[in-house]
Design a protein that fits this description.
Blueprint lengths: L2 E5 L3 H11 L5 E5 L2 H11 L3 E5 L7 H11 L5 E5 L5 H8 L4 E4 L4 H23 L5 H10 L5 H13 L6 E4 L6 H10 L8 E5 L5 H9 L7 H6 L3 E5 L6 H13 L5 E6 L3 H6 L5 H7 L3 E3 L10 H10 L12 E2 L1 H9 L5 H15 L4 E2 L17 H5 L3 H11 L4 H8 L8
Parallel strand pairs: 1-2, 1-3, 3-4, 4-5, 6-9, 6-10, 7-8, 8-9, 11-12
Helix pairs in contact: 2-3, 4-13, 9-11, 14-16, 15-18, 18-19
């Protein structure tokens, strides 16, 4: 029997909720304030906590924070007389499973409790599964290429996130690898590939969203049903129209959360939310675990490894493309370029060169001229900020060893370059 800890400073609320909840098959327990509730939760471990937001000395939001610190998988439903206001949104921001507005309907209360229990069971099953077994662990280093700090941080985040069904928001410029990370998060749990449902919000119509997300009954359309037991991936979420954002909130509230929700965006959703251009409740439901993917221009240390990876995948009729090498001056130019197309642009460039070159060693002369234009190099601010040696080396390489030309570009005496 599932257990619910009810937290409210009014005993009359305890009695009313007990009379409503117990006949539906839940075991109930009570606390009159947040401090007592926290102590009881630690001692007895409940499946779900139903807490009022307005209590003293510890209010519902503080209790929520403390419960999440003690047990990240705690399922907490907040009761409030001010649903839809800042207090309810704050509850979602700090990890509440959902909120209920007082006075609430009995059917709404029971349905929310059951969804919370379903979510708890789903959470438990995913967290007890061993994330990234040996056969899967190699996918991380093989698909997230690079030993730089940003990429290593990303790998660690992916490892940790596979153990939780909490929605994940992947943020970053186009072509920074968000889809790859989503696939790794899905695959790391051992779920079948067919259970990864991908929807591009930039390409779907409002009618598609309504049918696929909400369905005729409001309990989840075809996309939601197909994703059960797996992952629903919503790409380019910033393109989802506001009416559909509200419907997605309804889906997340009215379904059993039997799927992992992963969203990707190229926009700053927090800023859009502050400007009223993105649904605030949806943002806090999906953004509890945001992951920011760095643009390629901030991953210069990873470019040599990425170049080798992309070159090895090319097919050259003259020789094995895995043997193609880029000289240090060529790599320096690639590291200095700002890569507006990120990984896709680098992949296309390296693949074309590796598949068409007649020489195994690629020098700077074989790179496109656009990569050597000064407007595409790192800003002079980097030179002024104390990165003289690295910046000067890039410029000297790009100027094909002409120190005088490099000194002119940098505006320094040629002796400064050594």
């Amino acid at each position: 029997m599932s257990s619910v800890l009810i937290v409210d400073d009014l005993v009359s609320i305890h009695e009313m909720l007990d009379a409503v909840i117990q006949p539906t098959g839940f075991a109930t327990a009570f606390a009159t304030d947040g401090e007592k509730a926290l102590a009881r939760y630690k001692a007895e471990k409940f499946d779900l906590v139903l807490a009022d937001i307005d209590m003293k000395p510890m209010d519902g939001i503080t209790l929520l924070k403390q419960l999440k610190l003690y047990d990240p998988h705690a399922v907490v439903i907040i009761m409030t007389a001010f649903a839809g206001t800042e207090s309810a949104i704050q509850a979602l921001k700090f990890g509440a499973f959902d909120y209920l507005q007082k006075p609430f309907r009995v059917d709404e209360l029971i349905a929310t409790l059951r969804r919370g229990i379903d979510y708890r069971q789903f959470n438990t099953e995913r967290s007890t599964a061993t994330p990234w077994p040996v056969s899967k662990a190699t996918d991380l280093s093989e698909r997230l290429i690079g030993a730089g700090a940003a990429n290593q941080k990303l790998i660690q985040q992916v490892r940790k996130l596979t153990a939780s069904p909490t929605p994940v928001l992947l943020q970053g410029e186009a072509n920074t690898g968000k889809t790859t990370v989503a696939e790794l998060l899905h695959g790391g749990t051992g779920a079948a590939a067919t259970k990864l449902v991908r929807i591009d919000c930039a390409l779907s119509s409002e009618a598609d969203f309504h049918d696929g997300l909400l369905g005729q009954s409001g309990a989840g359309g075809a996309w939601v049903q197909k994703a059960k037991g797996g992952t629903l991936l919503l790409q380019n979420l910033q393109c989802l129209p506001l009416p559909m954002q509200r419907e997605l909130v309804s889906v997340l509230r009215n379904t059993a959360h039997g799927f992992r929700l992963i969203c990707t965006t190229t926009a700053d959703l927090e800023k859009l939310t502050e400007e009223g251009k993105f649904h605030d409740e949806l943002f806090y439901r999906i953004a509890s675990l945001p992951v920011l993917l760095a643009p390629l221009r901030e991953r210069a240390d990873d470019i040599p490894a990425l170049v080798r990876h992309f070159a090895a995948k090319a097919s050259n009729p003259l020789f094995d493309a895995t043997l193609v090498e880029f000289t240090p001056d060529a790599l320096a130019i690639l590291q200095a370029y700002h890569w507006p197309g990120n990984l896709t642009e680098l992949n296309q460039l390296v693949s074309k060169i590796a598949s068409t070159t007649e020489t195994r060693v690629i020098t700077s002369q074989q790179l496109p001229l656009r990569l050597k234009e000064m407007k595409h190099w790192p800003p002079l601010a980097e030179y002024l900020a104390g990165q003289e040696k690295q910046y000067c080396e890039l410029v000297v390489h790009a100027c094909r060893g002409d120190k005088a030309a490099a000194a002119k570009v940098l505006g320094v005496d040629v002796a400064k370059l050594g």
